[in-house]
Amino acid sequence: MNLIHKKARYYYWLVASFISKKWVYLIVSAVLSFFFISFFINSYPVINSLFLKKKVTVGILGKYSLQYLPLEITTLVSSPLVAASEKGDLTPVLANQWELYNDNKTYRFHLKTNLYWDNGKKFTTKDLNFNFEGIETKVIDDNTIDFYLNQPLSIFPAYLSKPVIKYPLLGIGGLYQAQSYNLKSKYYVTEINLYPNKKDLPYKTFKFYDNENDLIIAFKKGEITEFQTYKKNLADKFRNWKNINYQNRTDFSQIMTLFINTQSNKLNSKDLRKALTYAIPNFSDVGVRSVGPISPLSWAYDDKLKAYTRDKEKAKKMVSDEISATESAELNFYTFFDYINIAERLKSELEDIGFKINLHILSYIPPEFDMLLTLWNPPIDPDQYYFWHSTQTNQNITNLKNVKIDKLLEDGRKVTNIEQRKQIYVDLQKVIADEVPAIFLYYPYSYTVSRK
After folding, report:
1. What pLDDT does 187 receive?
2. Are 215 and 449 within 8 A, CB to CB?
3. 3-state secondary structure at position 429
4. Where are the transmembrane segments (predicted)?
5. In this structure, what CATH number is given to the domain that contains residue 102?
6. Using omega within 30 degrees of 0 as the cis cutoff, is the peptide bond preceding 168 cis?
7. 314 and 192 fall within a common domain
8. Are residues 268 and 416 in the same domain?
């Protein structure tokens, strides 16, 4: 027993002596270890994304602010109150359910409980910030909010289908969460880093470039691993590269559209606008032909809608019948730099049938024009009230005024029965095709180039 006691005392004094001599080092080591472990735990997402997880870096062309990011990013970061499908189905996501009151002019939405932002704070109706013209909102409680409409609008829930984002980039229930971002001039985003909320997803970075040349250089240097473009000649530069994936698809969410000012003293004649349609060439090299404003993927698409058949002789005669030798056949044609090649092709064809075309390249939609060529992104729901109704002076850029079209647009917003709504939009497509406020050229081919 004495032997055990002596050994215990020996080790006690040995440890005590060591501590008395090295206590400073021990304290410093303990403090450093504590900070190292804390740093490692807090930095794990970054370390994991940089060294352990697969990383995809996507190049995006264009200037964007945090308030107006591409859907490609916002749909990864957050979820909407309601999801709208191309078949017309509405599915609650962050919302649990909704009800109608006050002759269908008040919508009451109930949020799902136990929803949290990426920063851990609870999501409530006070966080919602919708700015719809002519619609008032009232928070009832943390999970209930009312929307007061001036008139019944059966498709209103479809307007709540955009991801809910809290500035700067907080989301709810997304596949990813924003880890960091960089700004240029305190406004434009240059880079966004996303960390996956599911273990099997890769870490994602989005880098933004002002022009195509910078985007291509970035891909060649390995700064980005993937980019998307609508220009085949651009994508084809990498088609034969080793370790490159080359994919193409038709983007039915956008239509290359030639908008026509129906109140222009040069194109206020329906026959002159129809003459333009007969002169339009085939754009099968850049996309799939479109015949109307509603996508063929939509439940409201009219598959019997007839397209104008190209007939330049007929177009020439219609122009000569409408415009006398003393009148001006000069048209101001505007477009954006990215669409200059398509605009040049249209200019050539329209000059062949008797017009003189002044082509202008701008970075904004001009207040006045005869024709405007741009890539148009129509809503998923076939309701296009804002684009064609005569009262919508801001978004109805064609200045279209047609009583029948107005009535169809109004009815399409009131009716809830899907079959009745479809017939309304079938009729709408026919009237728009006859009125020609715009020529819907094609759904563009989209090309994605990525490293294997």
Report:
1. 87
2. no
3. helix
4. 23-41
5. 3.90.76.10
6. yes
7. no
8. yes
75 assigned to some structural domain: no
The 10 Å Cβ neighbour count of residue 385 is 19
pLDDT for the residue numbered 12:
57
Our count of domains for the chain comes to: 3
> What phi and psi, each to the nearest 5 degrees, are found at residue 335?
-160, 180
Identify the domain boundary among 160, 193, 218: 160
Strands (DSSP E) found in 251-343: 255-260, 287-289, 330-335
227-255 pLDDT per residue, tens: 999 999 999 999 889 889 999 999 999 99
Query: How far apart are alpha carbons 120 and 25 in whole angstroms?
Result: 38
Same domain for 420 and 316, yes or no, is yes
Assess whether 395 and 288 both reside in one domain. yes
- Measure the CA dihedral 415/417/418/422, to 10°: -50
Q: Is 257 or 52 the better-scoring residue by pLDDT?
A: 257
Residue 388 has pLDDT above 80, yes or no: yes
Which domain, by its residues, includes 198?
A: 56-67+175-247
The span from the CA of 302 to the CA of 430, in Å, is: 9
**Radius of gyration of the CA atoms of the chain, in A:** 30
Amino acid present at 223: E
Angstrom distance (rounded) from CA 189 to CA 167: 13
- Which of 228, 247, 266 finishes a domain? 247
Same domain, 282 and 146: no
Query: Are 352 and 406 within one domain?
Result: yes
Q: Specify if 112 maps to a domain.
A: yes
> Do 185 and 155 lie in a common domain?
no
Q: Residue 353 is inside which H or E element, if any? A: none
Cβ atoms < 10 Å from Cβ of 336? 16
Q: What is the pTM of this model?
A: 0.82
Cβ atoms of 75 and 371 within 8 Å: the answer is no
**Which residues are bridge partners to 439 per DSSP?**
258
Nearby residues of 65 by Cβ (< 8 Å), 6 or more positions away: 187, 188, 189
Residue 167 lies in a domain: no
DSSP 285: T
What interhelical angle do 270-279 and 340-352 show, nearest 10? Answer: 110
Rounded to whole angstroms, the Cα distance separating 76 from 92 reads: 17
Closest CA to 63 of 214, 244, 194: 214
Q: Mind giving me the DSSP string for 196-257?
A: ESSTTSPEEEEEEESSHHHHHHHHHHTS-SEEEES-HHHHGGGTTSTTEEEEEEE-TT-EEE
Q: How far is CA 48 from CA 52, 169, 226, in A?
A: 5, 21, 21
Claim to verify: residue 238 and residue 315 sit in the same structural domain: no
Residue 4 lies in a domain: no
